[in-house]
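Give me the fold.
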Amino acid sequence: MTPLIWCIDVEPDARLIDRRTPILWEGYEKCIELFRELRPWLARVTGQTPHFSWFFRLDPQVAETYGDASWPLTHYRAELDELLASGDEVGIHPHAYRFDETLETWVIDYGDQAWVDHCVRVCFETFHDVLGRRCRSFRFGDVWMNDPTLHLVEKLGAQFDLTLEPGMSPNPAFYPGDHWTGCFPDLTDVPRTPYRPSAQDYRQPDQTRRDGILMLPLTTTRRQGAVDLAYGLLFRAQYRCAPQAVTRLNIGTRRIPFRLTADRILAQSELPYLAISMRTHMGAPRHAAQRMRRNLEYLFAHPRAPRFAIMRPDEAASTLALT
């Protein structure tokens, strides 16, 4: 049985939300409906009860816009209880947005470590206040990380980090129109398998460690082929910069890009687990459920695919004999 960790980032549909007009998270609402449909089907296909991993935005941007950082958990309390009753993982997914009055927009403030620490602490404290326990699973937004932040995340009780995407360069090409400070991490040499990080460099494994936070990098592969060449040309034309050279498996994408990426990932010689991610806004399109089911059918029926089971991070770590 090969673990498949399915990370779902629960956040507003838009990145640069209007802090004066808080609106409901339609994508999350649709995702709840979508996964109600997918859950029994996946149980039949895999022979195992699926346990998804939901990572909630509980940071200062949410607090400033909705009046309280806990809004996603309290407003959608019935949905949260449903996820917990289904055995899913609930974690946190902070972004470091700060509103800039001069620019009149949100700035991703990675250049101020005190602000980053504040964003992280708000998320952990809010999680504990609502759920009455420590948060054990963590994903920072925009694939961002540094050593002080990971040290704080571990100190606050997280056992699993699912932020990193191996092969990513320090090129902030996710949303080129965003304002940001600081720098993005160089993840080109991050291991593709689980590891416990060195205290000096979170991107390097410490072979002597037997406890502490476990890094579970997402599964990535390099872009290649005619489709990815076309994608690169369109990206450069629109944003005036190069896209990342690697990509992850996106269950909600169109058929051909999904199949090309799945083929490359499943051709890898070593695949101890598969870790994928999506934002909840992907649940909003009309045909999202149909597209995801079609892509999952291709993935599970692939001749190179192992027998997958959708697991929480702790279940995956146990299966891989890492805890």
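The chain has one domain: 2-319.
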